[in-house]
Amino acid sequence: MNTIAVLGAGGWGIALANYCSGLGHRVALWEFDPDEAERLRHERTRSSVLPGVPITAGITITADLQQALDKAEVILLVVPSHIVRSVLRQVATIVPTPQAIMVNCAKGIENGTQMRMSEVFAEELPGLPQNHYAVLSGPSHAEEVSRQIPTAVVVAAISEEIAASLQKMLVSKSFRLYRSRDVVGVELGGALKNVIAIAAGICDGAGFGDNSKAALQPRGLAEIARLGRKLGAEPLTFAGLSGMGDLIVTCMSRHSRNRYLGEQLGLGRKLDEVLNSMKMVAEGVRTCRSAVALSHAFGVELPICQQVYHILFEGREPRTALEELMNREIKPEVWF
Description:
This protein is α/β, with parallel strands linked by helices and 336 residues long. Helices cover 51% and strands 11% of the residues. It folds into two domains: 3-181, NAD(P)-binding Rossmann-like Domain (Rossmann fold, 3-Layer(aba) Sandwich), CATH 3.40.50.720; 188-326, Orthogonal Bundle (N-(1-d-carboxylethyl)-l-norvaline Dehydrogenase, domain 2). Strands 3-2-1-4-5-6-7-8 form an eight-stranded mixed beta sheet, sandwiched between helices. The longest helix has 24 residues, at 183-206.
């Protein structure tokens, strides 16, 4: 039995807290809003993000970060990527040199700095041993993990020992973990697939058809691999769970927030209108800004991400974006 703190009581945070508790671990679930934490303690459910899934009775729910972190051996950070830094600053005031294993479950790239989450962790928790950071990623919708639908994910850490220990701690007959040492690749795959999923949703909403969507996914994966290789990732990582696996599920699933957002844009709705109507965060919107900034900084061509950017932030019509993609210079099919 281990003591695990789950920071973030959204759908994925609740799903992971329930899952870890079901394995016999002691679990504290942190919700930043005291009023919401109190409601969750009484009602034991958050139907707005994970309907029909009760929070396991043995889980401690608290808005007190110090209480959540008390004696924690593993800390799962399960908040949107754009607030990871602010949460880590709070963690740092409580545990200046944390010895727990920190597991990032956010999928995004910070706007402005263009930092991956491991870089944000290193900056905000300078006392954290480098080998105590891990990232959990892969095709894992909270709705399905909560129903014990067979799921496989990847945990990446520079330390083989840490990755292996997390595997043993979290594996079950319904939740299989593979390990990797390619932290850069796993982080980028989990983040950038959300941008391609927005494009896939646009295809759905605009009625482009199966051919268009099927072409989009491997070409989107090629973009992710190109940028990943430039940033130091192992290209084959993107053929795995945090690359192709997560890309497929996010582009295709009815549970996908990013695909849904793209679909609504394809149907003609405006970005602000769609975002204001959503109860959960579509990480791909912010990540698209960072992806385009990285493409310019490193001289990497990301035509799909660039067209998604034009649609999201410059009002370009989906059909115009598709025409530009289709009319690009012809070339050999190169994966990266």
